[in-house]
Amino acid sequence: ISINTESVPINVLDFLSNELNQHLGLKIRGSKSDSAVLLEFRRAVNSPTDSYSILITDRITISFSSDASCFYAVNSLLQMIENTNGQNYIKKGIVEDMPKFSWRGLHLDVSRHFFSVDEVKRYIDLMAYYKFNIFHWHLTDDQGWRIEIKKYPKLAEVGGRRDSTIIGHYSKQPRTYDNKEYKGFYSQEEIKEIVAYAENRYITVVPEIELPGHSRAALAAYPEYSCSGQELHVP
Fold first, then answer.
1. Mean model confidence pLDDT for the chain
2. How far apart (Å, rounded) are the C-alpha atoms in residues 170 and 52?
3. What is the pLDDT of residues 155-170, one digit of tens each?
4. 125-147: per-residue pLDDT in tens?
5. What is the pTM for the complete model shown?
6. Helix (H, G, I), strand (E, B), or coil: what is residue 174?
7. Which residue pairs, CB below 8 angstroms and at least 24 apart, start in 54-57?
8. Where do runs of H (alpha helix) occur along 35-129?
9. pLDDT of residue 215
10. CA angle 139-201-107, nearest 5°?
11. Which of 85, 88, 146 shows the shortest CA–CA distance to 114?
């Protein structure tokens, strides 16, 4: 596919190239000749923040007001590809889009249930697909501390593990437990990797650190910081 690549952010171009190659077996070729370009990108001026349009005639023209909206436009274009009898195509038409809300957040609690780095990346991929832009990352709670703090290593080493997990709902009486150790935390390098991965998809990570409430995991690691000094396990 011939594209004018001059105005496209490099991470958006990489994303588009990977998606086309992986799912359709197509490759991108940069072209400076207007007549040869099938997919044209134009940076719009005096347009609303994060707005974009896609015009589909015999060629495709994407106009975008920001790097983020260029990424949103590419996502929309990829979602418009249809397949009939093995033939890929996009119907002619025009799309005009802009976000109604500047803060479009989605929340993931990794304290009660730990998710691997790959699972978190998959979550971010799905956020990008639906054009969410804020990732609320719930990293600590009573049931587990999931982020490495090198000055306080026991937060992850002690607070990041519990001896069992409740079976069924918390409100069930009497409560029953599986009596299986449950553990996990993210190293600082893994945190940086995920933040960079999200940033490449125009998603801001907002870490949620619960204090002073919901901090039993932290107090299990450092009971001297509790009101009573009493040693409590991770619930």
1. 94
2. 46
3. 999 999 999 999 999 8
4. 999 999 999 999 999 999 999 99
5. 0.92
6. coil
7. 54/80, 54/94, 54/95, 55/94, 56/80, 56/90, 56/91, 56/92, 56/93, 56/94, 57/92
8. 67-79, 117-129
9. 95
10. 30
11. 146
